[in-house]
Design goal:
With 556 residues, the protein is α/β, with parallel strands linked by helices. It contains 14 helices and 27 strands. Strand 19 and strand 20 form a beta hairpin. The radius of gyration is 31 Å and the shape is elongated. The structure holds adenosine-5'-triphosphate and magnesium ion. Adenosine-5'-triphosphate (ATP) binds next to helix 3 and strand 8. Its EC number is 6.1.1.18.
Length: 556
Amino acid sequence: MSEAEARPSNFIRQIIDKDLADGKHNSVHTRFPPEPNGYLHIGHAKSICLNFGIAQDYQGQCNLRFDDTNPEKEDLEYVESIKQDVKWLGFEWSGEPHYSSDYFDKLYEYAVELINKGLAYVEELSPEQIREYRGSLTEPGKHSPYRDRSVEENLALFEKMRTGGFAEGTACLRAKIDMASSFIVLRDPVLYRVRFADHHQTGDKWCIYPMYDFTHCISDALEGITHSLCTLEFQDNRRLYDWVLDNISIDCHPRQYEFSRLNLEYTVMSKRKLNQLVTEKLVNGWDDPRMPTISGLRRRGFTPESMREFCKRIGVTKQDNMIEYGSLESCIRDDLNERAPRAMAVLDPVKIVIENYDADKVEMLNIHNHPNKPEMGDREVPFTREVWIERDDFREEANKKYKRLVLGKEVRLRGAYVIKAERIEKDEQGNITTIYCTYDADTLGANPADGRKVKGVIHWVSVAKALPAEIRLYERLFTVPNPGAAANFADTINPESLVKVQGFVEPSLAEAKPEFGYQFERIGYFCADNKDSKADALVFNRTVGLRDTWAKIDAA
Ligand code: ATP
Ligand code: MG
């Protein structure tokens, strides 16, 4: 079954099915409208999968549109990163990317049309006064003294706004709707404001910029969008969306439908907060592998398939929700369990010396890349007299439950021989420095001949041949499930969200491609860092552990 066939239905797809069956539309056209004021995050991935997924499944189109009406906060760096992230997730937009700023001339003409119809006026109250006059949920608003200006006066003043005759905050254009409406968005909303700011697309052409609510509906209509999908906080704004399109001369009237946004435990998703993490250097940039950004998750080793699968599993509804962090992790774990080649790495090394193994010998052992996928082939792993194992895989004494190496007992080195720990050496602080062992030469790929049972298997790398590597162990960035609700979310950052250790990896990992996932046997899934890993200084990121270690903690 293809991915598209496997995509579950939802209330939006039901609306589309009905619109197509009724002949209201004969094709579907959606859009994904990010504001280029930050990098995309996993919440945007939900919207991307919804909008582009619908276009794919209904053989329709999906536009990429930069909603760029706030020049001060926007930047070309964000435009480029957004394009890259959408492509990486596996989607293609229809035609060239669009920009709301492409429509600034038309938007201006529609504003003039509203003025001519007596449906918009130039306001000269201050922003504070506008707020005061607006009223509240329990009290109606008051009319501005400027509300009843003549059409001619409004046209002249709007022209004065456009040509730089008003300072910022001294004039704006408002729609004339209803100051007593129970929908506050309809209490004469601002349509245009003065901003003397250069724009990344239009330069210094404009010193007035249209507001989101005026821009979005008209951009949708100009692009022939059929279903305009957005998150629930825009529910009330739909009244204004429809009011604008009903009152200007435009043929197309797209319909807006709202769905609930993705909230993920132990994560913040607001771009303002993500921006704060970056600018205050609480993380190492937008693509820090602890960030919920698409570029951060990618750098950490998430695949596009795992992110699309996550979006499929969470579904699309109108219910507010908080998704467990573990459900994102289980998507990447399920994906990598299938396709990641296995490799060996030792993160906290202690040395084994196999005293009855020839000091000069290097044996190339063939080890399967995947335990149940022979088609993934084998690799050669060098075995030598000295090997590193994990410090935690050895005990001087232990009960039967401990299936690793114990003094005087045997264990199997993965893909190699059975060894027996004979004696140990310690430093002055009592730390074990070396474990002296013997090996049974007849146990390569075979059980001990005399029927001795050796249950434990541990991983290892050759001291002479392994490569040193920095391993970055990531944990959740925050210590509380809902950091956004904390008085200061930055106070809840997990100080152990990044721990760097120096370990050793088997030599085949010299060729590891950045972002490509491996399972480090018995530890977890890792990939080479796409920025910092160099041939002579390998750096690996932990994508996710083998099991959900938090599940127990959360339940406790
Ligand atoms: P912020 O409020 O943090 O600035 P935003 O929602 O304004 O974020 P946009 O760039 O305007 O960010 O979002 C582009 C699209 O992605 C919008 O349609 C928006 O509804 C959707 N989107 C943003 N965040 C989420 C989320 N957490 N879950 C689902 N969709 C989202
Ligand atoms: Mg926005």
